[in-house]
């Protein structure tokens, strides 16, 4: 299955927003065009007076946890269907717009940022090579959404044929392709479509030759993720897919849980589809993948996000059988063209080792070690008839190597320095396409020729809209509270002086085993041009250091992540990169807790915080369908020890009356299937009631999107402009 990385998801500062409830959509900046950006930062720029926040009544509710009574004054804001809540959100959105829309310099930012967001994404991405046909998602502004094309022959971008364009299906731009999967022979393609980033896509099938839609529409049900996965059978006569319970199936409280694997035979009633893997965990999240020849389908079943995993394999002519249980610590299984099953295991190898057993009769206990554990973290494997390609993470940046079928090292696939490899696609004769980007080099597709060991950049690349030739990346380390060394990447212009005066953005994640790798974000050009610096931290809780690195920052150890982050800020001060009143924090979608923890634990350390899709009330989190999936990472209030840890750092409960809090922009989406928007509502109310500072605290809630994937182009541009306008104003950046 190929998950579609939307253009919004590829621009970290263009991820969330859209039209605000209770107001008319903003279509552009309102001040007159200013001059082009140039390096200049001074005292905080004058701006409009911020309206008083809407009145927010306190309606205290008390609940006892393990003998401790906890008050919640704003629990009433959790009900997003309430007319009172909708009115409250609309009032906040109007207040936010009234402030941001007339800040000085917005027009100049709009002009430059729009160009960056429009063309900051690869022209082609999410490749699949099936039956000699290359499938790809295509991005071509000013279209609001990417669309699906075929490329025959490969390497000829001008030979593209449009297979499905959601912009034609829905001219409003709110319908997007979640993911697609081509059949093994390349004759058919199954596509998941959804509208407004809502949970619950539907699968539609198309004939590749004619482009016509065929067969039935298969709904996948509403859940934390959009159905999630598809895998064709060998003959292309049907496919396995994942689905949540539909309305009327099971108990109402089970909607959004108990995902299962079904098989659908084309041209038969969907109601007759039978489960192919049953009796799965309540929090099952399932990834299906068909082998290149279609003989095998692997299923990775994770209980909760970052939770224990089990693995199954389907063999042509048979059924699914379990290969590994949670105790086996298997991360990934891939069926190779040689009939073997390749297994990435962390059992007694926290950075991962590669095992092999028969895919026809898999026996994990008798699997042989092909690639032992190394210094880098093993992330993925791609076996061919003659080679085994592996992709690893070296503290964040990617590495690619190849071995022969016996595990003998063969060589390295050349990649950009300090870069990330996102996708790898097998062509023929062991040749590869791979997508590669760095902090300073735009994402592009490269071809690795196995015969020569050479890499060449293909024509399937978007021309870079921002030139970072005058920039450099420095890899630093900082020392956390317990002495652990934490990697830190610093992107700056080569002429930037470390005098403590640089406006700086610090970002990081530190959760769910997610690897934070180098990324090309052209909107950073606007930041560098005013003397700004960007710092990216590789915190514990992520996957950069392997399983042990992740476990050091999860459950009752979550405070470790925050300590790492604070240590990175202190390191920036020590290096005289910046100082506290020049430092802003930018939250990533995969770090919903980090910004809230920084805001409440060290408000003196930062001048501004932008948080998107945040979670702040850690005691109420698991009571929501979204939050239930996060229990393996954060813990449960049912466990007394975990409750004490959760309550100890829960941002919503750690806000103190009378304390001065920094300028804060809270971004959320009402359709976010992964982060309940009630968290941002409650946090905004609590901060506004408590703070003694005059710094702006703003809530911006999207009424028709979620966390970014599927966001129309115009909305993505406006969100990026708002973020930079806010940061420029708060940090006192003036553009002459």
UniProtKB/TrEMBL annotation:
Residues covered by the Peptidase S9A N-terminal domain: 54-458
Q: Which residues form the Peptidase S9 prolyl oligopeptidase catalytic domain?
A: 523-732
For bias type Low complexity, the affected ranges are 34-49
Q: Which UniProt keywords apply?
A: Hydrolase, Protease, Serine protease, Signal
Report the PROSITE patterns cross-referenced here. Answer: PROKAR_LIPOPROTEIN
**Enzyme Commission identifier(s):** 3.4.21.26
Q: Which residues form the signal peptide?
A: 1-24
Specify where the region named Disordered lies, as residue ranges. 26-59
Report which residue ranges the record marks as coiled coil: none
Report which reactions are catalysed by this protein. Hydrolysis of Pro-|-Xaa >> Ala-|-Xaa in oligopeptides
Q: What is this protein called?
A: prolyl oligopeptidase
Which InterPro entries does this UniProt record tie to the protein?
AB_hydrolase_fold (IPR029058), Pept_S9A_N (IPR023302), Peptidase_S9_cat (IPR001375), Peptidase_S9A (IPR002470), Prolyl_oligopep/macrocyclase (IPR051167)
